[in-house]
Design brief:
This protein is of the alpha+beta class. It folds into 2 domains: 1-32; 35-143, Beta Barrel (OB fold (Dihydrolipoamide Acetyltransferase, E2P)), CATH 2.40.50. It contains 3 helices and 7 strands.
Length: 144
């Protein structure tokens, strides 16, 4: 085999390897993406079907119920409420009336099955998407 052919073969093999690596990286990134939606968007059917996503808002006052390690509560954007079930230990800062972001999937009964619960970490902090959604919900609620 001539050196020219060897060089071409090496270049082709390198391009194939780079292409395979890029596909694997994109596949891994795509499977780990968790879109953020609000309770109003979930109620409107805009939530991703069959894939994990994040839902954020406020934990509704009086909705927190514990049954062993299973916790049931309602997440709200002050316009729509979504029931949530979580099995595990909640973060220390998780409280009723406070902001939270929950990752998981919707089940067939319309309940959000959480795999991860994140509580806001500062008295004044709220994810920008959640703050915007709450502001919009309050604005729409006061316009009625």
């Amino acid at each position: 085999m001539k050196p020219r052919h060897k060089r071409a073969l090496i270049i082709i093999a390198a391009l194939i390897a780079i292409g395979v690596a890029a596909l694997l990286i994109l596949n891994a990134l795509n499977s780990n993406i968790a879109l953020y939606v609000t309770p109003s968007e979930v109620a409107a059917g805009k939530a991703p079907q069959g894939q994990a996503f994040r839902i954020g808002g406020m934990v509704k006052d009086g909705s927190l119920k514990r049954d062993g390690l299973t916790v049931h509560f309602v997440i709200t954007d002050l316009a729509k409420d979504i029931p949530v079930a979580y099995i595990g230990i909640l973060p220390d800062l998780f409280k009723e009336g406070k902001g939270a972001v929950i990752q998981g999937r919707m089940n067939a009964n319309g309940e959000f099955i959480a795999s991860e619960v994140l509580a806001k970490h500062d008295e004044n902090y709220m994810p920008p998407e959640a703050k915007h959604a709450l502001d919009q919900a309050q604005k729409n609620g006061s316009a009625k």
